[in-house]
Amino acid sequence: MQSFLWFISTLFVFLSYVENTFGGITSTFIRSQWPSVDIPLDNEVFAVPKGHNAPQQVHITQGDYDGKAVIISWVTSDEPGSSEVQYGTTTGKYDHSAEGKSSSYSFYKYKSGYIHHCLLDGLEYDTKYYYKVGSGGSSREFWFQTPPTIDPDASYKFGIIGDLGQTYNSLSTVQHYMEELDPFKSYLHRYPTPYLASKSTSPLWYAIRRASAHIIVLSSYSSFVKYTLQWMWLREEFKRVDRKKTPWLIVLMHVPFYDSNDVHFMEGESMRAVFEKWFVRNRVDIVFAGHVHAYERSYRISNIQYNVSSGDRNPVPDRSAPLYITVGDGGNQEGLAGRFRDPQPDYSAFREASYGHSTLEIKNRTHAFYHWNRNDDGKKVETDSFILHNQYWVSSFRRRKLKKHRS
Amino acid sequence: MQSFLWFISTLFVFLSYVENTFGGITSTFIRSQWPSVDIPLDNEVFAVPKGHNAPQQVHITQGDYDGKAVIISWVTSDEPGSSEVQYGTTTGKYDHSAEGKSSSYSFYKYKSGYIHHCLLDGLEYDTKYYYKVGSGGSSREFWFQTPPTIDPDASYKFGIIGDLGQTYNSLSTVQHYMEELDPFKSYLHRYPTPYLASKSTSPLWYAIRRASAHIIVLSSYSSFVKYTLQWMWLREEFKRVDRKKTPWLIVLMHVPFYDSNDVHFMEGESMRAVFEKWFVRNRVDIVFAGHVHAYERSYRISNIQYNVSSGDRNPVPDRSAPLYITVGDGGNQEGLAGRFRDPQPDYSAFREASYGHSTLEIKNRTHAFYHWNRNDDGKKVETDSFILHNQYWVSSFRRRKLKKHRS
User: Fold this and answer.
1) ipTM for the complex?
2) Whole-angstrom Cα distance, residue B161 to residue B254?
3) Which residues 302-361 of B have a C-beta within 8 angstroms of A?
């Protein structure tokens, strides 16, 4: 089974599920409230390398809808240099090459390095590729593994880390750039997205398919109310979801719908009012959000009965609803959001103000394993885990069984 | 008392108020459901004039924060021609002139005329100005009256017509332009706003002061959640409101918060979740919206107790809350929105699916008269009217009286 670490700057994804057993857990684990230091990551990849104009901050993004392309991104600091990537299936032997582009931006006195993006497309599924960036003595080799063919029973492991070093101040800055109609600065300079492949008009919302999962990324800070471009795009994207090909339907966004931390409480209410009914109707399996610097998981609940006229109110248990998981705990200089609301609301299943990361191991079309691992001063401690049943296959199986039973 | 007709394309404003007497009225007036024909307007102003390159579609907008400037806009169709406006306080004698700018845009096969905007600033308050646009035999003279000095007891009459010939399809088009980062096409080409004067970063949200009123215009289709530019701007703009100078605080937006028509029901819920508490805290007098092609007025109610955790629910009577009036009844080729929800919700005071327009006559710092006039096949029929008490002056007077009574 392959794996893919997902940390698209501001948020990201995961999970699994047994039966609803109401009564939530507020973890008693207490961590000192220092802002995070860096999460230990592979130094070979993330350390600043030596040598003239050596490529640094090398990262990789799916480059198309279905996983047969990647975008390689890196930064050089001395001069623009080459944006070429050489690649092949044997280390040191590069029988393909692709030409990318570089750009830079400035913000007041800050001047970015030269940021390179290079698309490698027409790749084979399930294949290990070696690639080289940079030139001469400063060139560096890395590798990646392409995902398996889109297949309903493909097993696949995702890792999800949210809010990794982004602050909401920096988000305001992103927003500022966006509204100033200069959207390719900063954030978008550094994080390319394959938005055109999913017919999106903005790099801030898009979808990809990977193995047995269809993953939708939404933008909390762009307009999303009815008739806006994001709303129109999502309506169409849900029609493109084929649970027979990709049984797992996962949504990523920045601001959570269901979270009971005092910090940012109910900031997701605006988007919930618009999109929650689509999540329920389309049987989304799981919704991952960031923003709140703590971990929290909901039960399957929905609040789509709420109606300003009728008096119906508040989240109720709903088997068709997704699970909501806040994973804004990747580690961020703002520190943790330590104060949860008391009492713990009915919708909240588990919550803890620690740094950590999640994994979602899809086993087949019906089952996946979810784990949240607390990062306890460098030690990985499994803290919240369970089995997730697919919302489409398990529930339609249940429907068939029920129908048979009744007839 | 002066008057000012407000019809900024997609919506606009007004109202007055006696005591809450719950139990709403659904008017039994029935109008045939034909899409609207043009509301009769002054032909001298709105008819297409004769002559080579004659100025047409002449309209006027407040050009600054406090009412000492106007923007004159017009269209010429033969050639760009002059963007100059000559003006003065005597008809036919123009001792001032100002130079404007013209532009045009195209959309697929459509090509706009030459759209001119010219700012006339440094004007005197409460003064009638005559102005001339166009040149030679095709030039045309019009006049406008500047508002009185900003003064808490200035009387002033506003007219409000919403959704006058704009469709939500056209709004989608506007939105499309916005997100395509080409925001000066179409809508913004034609409707300039004095947004810089209120420190806004976008022409789609801004504020002006006029006589004894502070008027805030919000954008339903731009992002507005916490940390966005519109949110940050509104937070600051509320701080700039000085009810001792401008007792009347009026908000205009496109999508209503409280409306009980089946069409567009609860589409304003997203923005309500973000801004309603500010409206209550800042004692907004009245909120005008358009979008729904019918007339509706709420009681003073708020839903800020609603909390996804606590179970508190639904709008309750609230003396600190604004009145909400939907005036999306200006007349629009989409026709009327004739189906109201049954039963009429508690928050709805009066509703009727007719074309019409509203007037708000501010008398002094404490009282204003509100009228909604049905346009019954060209006849103006006063249908909903009442006295509005100022939310700042009357309520603080009440507080003082109460305090005195208690001590």
Assistant:
1) 0.80
2) 12
3) 303, 307-309, 311, 313-315, 341, 345, 347
